[in-house]
Amino acid sequence: MTTVDSSTGLAPIAERAAAPASLPSITAGSLTWRPAVPDDAPALLALRNTIAETDDEPYRESIEEITELFEAPWRRFDTDSLVGVDGEGRLRAYGTVESMPGDTRTVRAFLFGGVHPQVRGQGIGRELFAWQVARGRQVLAASGKDLPARLAVMAEDDGPASKARLYERAGFTPRRFYSDLRRDLRDLVAAPLPDVTLDGSLRLVPFAPELDDAARLAHNDAFRDHWGSEPQTAEQWTSSRSAFVPAWSFLVLDDAPDVDALLADADTDAETAASLRAGEPLVVGYQMADRFDEDFAVRGYSFGYTALLGTRRAYRGRKAAVAALAAGMRAMAADGMEFACLDVDTANPSGAHGMYAGLGYEFTHGSRMLSIEL
Question: Which intervals hold domain N-acetyltransferase (predicted)?
Fold first, then answer.
């Protein structure tokens, strides 16, 4: 008999996940399968970039990005990854399952993988994806988090039709759509960036390491009403920083916050409340930027990438994010970048689309998230 939690209306995650007792075997393609290990990083990079080139994806990866995947302590490559190796020792396919330690509203398992174009059409991808889905269900069941749950994959809108069919046949449904945008920075005289004057005690500052965790708290607050977003732990926040450019990243501080009002606000999270009581700086807006040199040739231009942008909910409407973004774009332009790029959820609740359009951003391509909701 299924027991339903009266507060959530959900059965226990162990039941909803319907995790199999054992994982399916992969026999297609005559490959040898084993978990990925750190020494695979160069071969995995070559495989992933070959797949990206074949599928006309608008990005490439660096060895630093692949190495960082193995360095994150919450990733369990020994149980949550497979690589398929041919008789000559070459990596021909890979699949991973990733869950995040900070998930508190929806527990998620993301599935990433691909097959080398030279061995496609043999059923490898179908069997590998079945393994990933089964392992993803096991990961969700083992989380012990009786929350809404999600198995998810990402796909480019113009990606291979075969991949889309694979996902949909496995029960994955498009849930969210994302737009990649760019803004020309080559002539800021003809197309100037806004001069933003912040009101009251708000102050724009360059990113500084001592403000990094305060920026994380601002991000967790800014995105708590965004579909699919979950709080980031300190460990998550500081991982995968090989592409991070501090000189292109800016923060907005409130030098005189109304501490009593914020502490009385039921939406103020426990970590922010502790920070306020300790008198620590309050970041209310932020723009965190990356640089992906490997993508320049693929796209045909150089660019700076806004990886994270947001404003605390209590400070929306005060132009904190616009000020941080404009400062970042000026810094990118000063370093010779031809464009500023970012991507945005098409259903973003903060009105970001209008802000980006007003700043001169234009659509370049789209992607989507497909999921099974549990």
Answer: 31-194
Check residue 244 and report its DSSP letter: B
- Token readout for 31 is 């490959």
CA 345 – CA 180 distance, rounded (Å): 9
H or E segment at 369?
A: strand 362-373
pTM: 0.91
Cβ–Cβ under 8 Å, residues 73 and 235: yes
Question: Residue 94, CB half-sphere, CA atoms under 13 Å: how many?
Answer: 23
Dihedral sign of CA atoms 211, 213, 216, 222 in order: negative
What CA–CA distance (Å, rounded) separates 138 from 88?
A: 32
Direct distance between the N- and C-terminal alpha carbons of the chain, in angstroms, rounded to an integer: 18
pLDDT in tens, 64-79: 999 999 998 889 999 9
Half-sphere exposure of 276 (CA within 13 A, CB side): 20
Whole-angstrom distance, CA of residue 126 vs CA of residue 133 = 11
State the sign of the Cα–Cα–Cα–Cα dihedral 346, 190, 192, 335: positive
- For residue 105, name the pLDDT band (cuts at 50, 70, 90): confident
Q: How many CB atoms lie within 10 A of CB 267?
A: 12
Q: Which residues pair with 231 in a beta bridge?
A: none
Judge contact between 90 and 43, C-beta under 8 A: yes
Which pair of tokens denotes residue 81?
Answer: 């990854």
C-beta of residue 224 within 8 angstroms of C-beta of residue 313: yes
CA–CA separation, 316 and 322 (whole Å): 11
**pLDDT of 104 strictly over 90:** no
Task: Yes or no: say if 96 and 111 are a contact pair by the CB < 8 Å rule.
Answer: yes
Nearest to 284 by CA among 255, 248, 327, 326: 255
HEC secondary structure over 30-70: HCEEECCCHHHHHHHHHHHHHHHHHCCCCCCCCHHHHHHHH
Structure-token match 């994010």, residue found: 321
DSSP code at position 268: S
Task: Identify whether the C-beta of residue 339 lies closer than 8 Å to the C-beta of residue 303.
Answer: yes
